[in-house]
Every structure is written in structure tokens, then in C-alpha cells.
Design goal:
Radius of gyration: 17 Å
Largest sheet: 8 strands, mixed
Distance between the termini: 13 Å
Helix content: 25-40%
CATH superfamily: Alkaline Phosphatase, subunit A
Number of helices: 11
Strand content: 15-25%
CATH topology: Alkaline Phosphatase, subunit A
Number of domains: 1
Protein name: Alkaline phosphatase family protein
Order of helices and strands: EHHEHHHEHEEHEHHEHEH
GO molecular function: hydrolase activity
InterPro entries: Alkaline_phosphatase_core_sf, Phosphodiest/P_Trfase
Number of strands: 8
Pfam families: Phosphodiest (PF01663)
């Protein structure tokens, strides 16, 4: 069993990660991690892909095919698998994560900060509801939960890259600089996590097109980075799938699960 951090950088397209995430790439070049190119599932939009990442169920099978489809998830998520194994799991994330796995209708007062609420799938959480909620605050929120409550699995979910992409489009200095800002925050955190023996996955739900949207089949809408860091990973050349993230995390956590994943990714 190893503790796991999963970072979802909403809206970060693969080539932008390759061009702008210099800190993370430096760690990869030092053989401390590896970056893979991963194709997001369709449609390349957020709520369906949150469900795919966290449960391993593709949108066509989950029935969540757009951002306006708001059912409570009917599939077991990483959070539930961790809970069944008596592990501590938490998230600092956009409120749609709360709606999928805690409560269908998000209450900005009652549901924003969750501390040791064991009746919920995510018993430790800080959920935000503005797309421009500052990434520096988001990463502090999640790291506070992880450290203060000694979490075994922590989801960090930031929205600034996606928000800036919608405002300025993919091919813009603003979009690239949003990625650079996150890289500055993350590169230091990853070193800290590795020193603590935590295994780390950093990826995105989808990319961004030059219309400032996403949802379709263009490469820039679907190609995302998949970074891995930690002593559980083999760094082998292997094709990675978005629907395999849930099973991969569960395997590293050492919990019983029935999800598929690329076994070659692990030692």
C-alpha cells in the first residue's frame, strides 16, 4: 500500500504541458517521473470525464454525456474503494465532484467544507464553485487536508487553466502562462510528496481548442498529459487510457477493486 495524490489540471492540452511545464519535465528528465500522451474519452468535456477518471467508466456507459447531466454517480469511485478499505480519502475540487459523489445538489454553505463526515463518499473536502478560484488557494486547500488529516488518497482539482482557455483560447499567451503558473506550484509539491513516499499522478480531463471550447474529437481537445512520479511506477513504454486511472490508483492504494488498468505501468 502506498499513499496517492491525483492531480487533475482541468483543460490542459498535451502540447501545452510539453511546452510549458518545465519543472515537471525537469523531474522526468532526471528519471524521477515520466510523461505520457493520453487520449481523453468522448465527449471531451468535464463532468463525463470526471466520472471516467474517478470510476473507470466511459461516458457512453455511465450515461453522463454532457455537463448538464447531473445524476449522482451510480458507479464505485476511488473514494468508495478507499472507504471500504478503511483508508482516508479527500478532495479539494470543483463542486461538480461533490455533486457526483457526495450530494447531488451542492449547497454553498453546508457542502463547501467537509471534515470527517463518514456518511459521505468524500469525508474530507473543500469544494469551490467559481471557475477562477485561484489555483494557489486550491493547492493549499488540498495540501492542508492531506497533511492535517493524514489522507491516504487526495484529489487536487484545479480549474484556472480551463477557465483561461475558455476566455482566451488554446493558442494564447494567457493559456500558456496559466500552465506555467501551475507548474511552478506543482514542481515543488511533487518533490515534497516524493520525499514522503507518496505516488503521484498528474493529468487532465480534456484539452482546449482555438475557439475557446472543447467537447469534440480534435487532437487539441482530446490529447492530454499523463505524468507519473513515485517508486511504484515502472516508467515503461505503454499506452495509457483515461478509463484505467481508477484501477491504477486503487492498485497502488492496495485496495480490492474490479477495475482494469495498464499493469505495465507498475513495477
Amino acid at each position: 500500500m502506498s499513499k496517492v495524490v491525483l492531480v487533475i489540471l482541468d483543460g490542459l492540452e498535451y502540447s501545452t504541458a510539453q511546452q510549458c511545464m518545465g519543472g515537471l519535465l525537469a523531474l522526468c528528465n532526471a528519471n524521477m517521473g515520466k510523461i505520457y500522451k493520453m487520449k481523453s474519452e468522448l465527449p471531451s468535456i468535464s463532468r463525463p470525464l470526471y466520472e471516467c477518471i474517478l470510476t473507470g467508466v466511459k461516458p457512453a456507459l455511465s450515461g453522463i454525456l454532457n455537463n448538464y447531466c447531473k445524476p449522482f454517480s451510480s458507479n464505485k469511485s476511488i473514494f468508495e474503494y478507499a472507504k471500504l478499505a478503511n483508508l482516508k480519502a479527500g478532495a479539494a475540487a470543483y463542486y461538480w465532484i461533490s455533486e457526483l459523489y457526495n450530494k447531488t445538489l451542492f449547497d454553498r454553505v453546508k457542502d463547501r467544507i467537509i471534515i470527517n463526515e463518514q456518511s459521505l463518499n468524500i469525508p474530507y473536502g473543500i469544494f469551490y464553485y467559481e471557475d477562477d478560484y485561484n489555483d494557489s488557494h486550491l493547492f493549499s486547500d488540498a495540501e492542508c487536508l492531506r497533511v492535517k488529516f493524514d489522507l491516504d488518497f487526495t484529489l487536487f482539482h484545479s480549474m484556472n487553466i480551463d477557465d483561461i482557455g475558455h476566455k482566451f483560447s488554446h493558442d494564447s499567451k494567457e493559456y500558456r502562462n496559466a500552465a506555467r503558473k501551475v507548474d511552478t506550484i506543482l514542481s515543488s509539491l511533487v518533490l515534497k510528496w516524493l520525499e514522503e513516499g507518496v505516488n503521484v499522478i498528474i493529468t487532465s480531463d480534456h484539452g482546449m481548442n482555438n475557439d475557446g471550447t472543447h467537447g469534440g474529437n480534435l487532437d487539441i481537445e482530446r490529447d492530454v498529459a499523463f505524468f507519473v512520479f513515485g517508486d511504484k511506477f515502472s516508467f515503461a513504454r505503454v499506452e495509457v487510457e483515461q478509463s484505467g486511472i481508477c484501477g491504477l490508483v486503487c492498485e497502488i492504494l492496495g485496495v480490492d477493486h474490479d477495475k482494469s488498468f495498464a499493469k505495465e505501468l507498475l513495477k
